Automatic annotation (TrEMBL):
VWFA domain boundaries: 148-334
Transmembrane regions listed in the UniProt entry: 488-513
Parts forming coiled coils: none
GO molecular function, one term: voltage-gated calcium channel activity
The protein's name: VWFA domain-containing protein
Organism: Arcella intermedia
Matches recorded under InterPro entries: Ca_channel_alpha-2/delta, VWF_A, vWFA_dom_sf
Pfam families documented for this protein: MCP-like_PDC_1, VWA_2
Record flagged with keyword Membrane: yes
Any one GO cellular component localisation term in the record: voltage-gated calcium channel complex
UniProt keyword annotations, A-Z: Membrane, Transmembrane, Transmembrane helix
Amino acid sequence: MVKEREDVLDVFIKQFKVLYGQRCTYKCSCSNRYCPGYTQFQPTQCASNTSYGTPSFCSVPGRMADFNASSVRVPSVGVPDNLVKTVQCWSSGIDPYFAQYSGITLWRYLGTPQGFFRSYPGSDRVSCTDYDPRTRPWYIAASSGPKDVVLILDTSGSMSNFNRISLAKAAATKVLNTLTINDYIGVVQFSNGASIISSPSGLLLPATLSNLLSVQAAVDNIAIGGETNYEKAFQMAFQMIRNSKTQEKSTGCETLILFLTDGVANLGAVDDALLGEIATLNAGVDAKIFTYSLGAQAAVLLPKAIACANNGVWAQINDGGDLSSQMGNYYNYLASSIINRTRAVWTEPYVDASGAGLVVTVAKAFYDETASPPLFLGVVGIDVKVDELLAVATSDQLLEYLVYRAIMCPVVSITPCGLEFMRSQVVNENGATSKCEVNLTCPERDIPQQSCLQQGIDYGFCNVVAGSEYTKEAACCPEHVVEGGPNIAVIVGCAVGIPLGVLLLVGIGFLIYDRCSKTSHVTTTTGVPQSLKEET
C-alpha cells in the first residue's frame, strides 16, 4: 500500500514535469472558476460519504466539492503576480490525473516556491489568499530533509525601534512552525553578550512538539536592552553546534544558522576581524549562514558580508514585510541544491483540519532536470488515512517506518554560480540586491519560471475574498443531500474529527496536533515490519 501511494505520487510528478515543459507553448485558458466568489466554480457534488471533511461554518456533515477540477490558493503578500499566474496556468492541466485516482487517495496537492497551492478536489474557501504551502511541514520535509537549525536573535536596545523585536519573534515563529520531528533546533539571543535560550543543557533539541512549545515560550519571553555584539553571538552559536555534534544531539546533516539583526555591531570584533573569526569557528562545521536585516534602516553591509562568506543568502525584511518568502531562503537553498532527490517523505500523523481524521502525508519534491543545476519546481503531496496504514502494520511499526523514510541526510551540492543565481532571485522590498558581487564568470541564464502569459487571456487570478453567504452556499452541503463523490470512508467533521483523534491517540500511541497550525510529533519506536520494507 505504501508503494502504491508513492507510485501515484510519481504519476502526478511526471505529468507536472510535462506541463511545466509546455508552459510557453501550452495554449492554456486559465479561468477564474477556481476562485471563491465566481459563479463559474462548479462544486456540484456533496462529498457526504467521504473523508474530505466539513467546513466549520456548515450545519450538516460534508462539503460541496468539484471532483472534476482542483482549486488554488496563494499567499497574501510578497510574490510577483506574473510568477504566480504562470504557475497557475501551466499546472492547471493536472486535473484529469488528480481525478483519475479518486478511489485510493484523499486530498492531493501541489505547493511551489512562489507560494502557489493547488488542491483536489476543488472546494470553496472564504478567501484563497490566506495560505502559504511553503510554511507547511510536508513541504519543508520533502524539499529540505533533516537539518540542524540555529536561530541567532538580536535583543539589543535598538530592537525596540519600530517594535523590531516583534518582527524578530514573528520570524523565529515562522521558522519553528516549519520544523519536523527529524530536525534539531537551537536559539541564541545576544546584545552585550550572548546566551542560549532554547535549552538549559546548551545543546540542540530535537524538534518534538513539546520542545518546540518550550522554545516558542522562550522566544516570546525575550527582553531587550544593551549594545550589539555580533562576535559573542557567533561564538555562542558555534559552541552549541560543536557540543551538540560531540554528544550526538544533532541530525548529522546540514547545519544552518539564521542570523537576525537590526543594528550595527558596536561591541566586539567587526568587519574583516569578525569575518575571520567566523571562518575559524566554522572550520569543520561548514554551517551555511543566512542573515536578515530587520527594518528599512537596518545594518546591511556586515550581515550581507557574513552570508556571502559562508555560502548563505542575505535578505532585508522591512517592517510589516513578507516573512514567509524571506525566511524561506534557507530551505529554498536546500531544495535547490539537494542531489539525492529520488525519495518520497512520509510525515508523522496529524489531525487533518478539513475533517479527514488522523492522516499522514506522502510528499516528494520535483525539479526541472533540463536546467543546470536542476531547478526546484515544487512539492507534490497526497494525504493517506492512518487507519489504512494500520491495516498492514502496528502503530509502533508504522512510526518506525515513517521516521526511517524521512531520516536520510540530503546530499547538498551547489556551484558558486548556482548560489549566486539563487541570491539574484531574492526580492528585497527596498530594491537592494542580495547578489554578492563575487568575481565569477557565469553563463547567462534566463529564469526558467519565466512568464509566458499570452496576451488577451483573462487568467482570473485569485485575488478576491468571497462573501460569507456565497461561501456557505458554495461549500456547504444542503440539509437534504444526494450523496456523491468517491466512496472512500465515512466523513468526520471538524467538530467531531478532533475528539475522535484524541480517542485514537489513546488507542495507537500518537501525539497529534491540528494541521492548521503545525503537525505534531510522534514519540514511540520499534521495529519496521518486513512487509513495509519490501514495498520501499
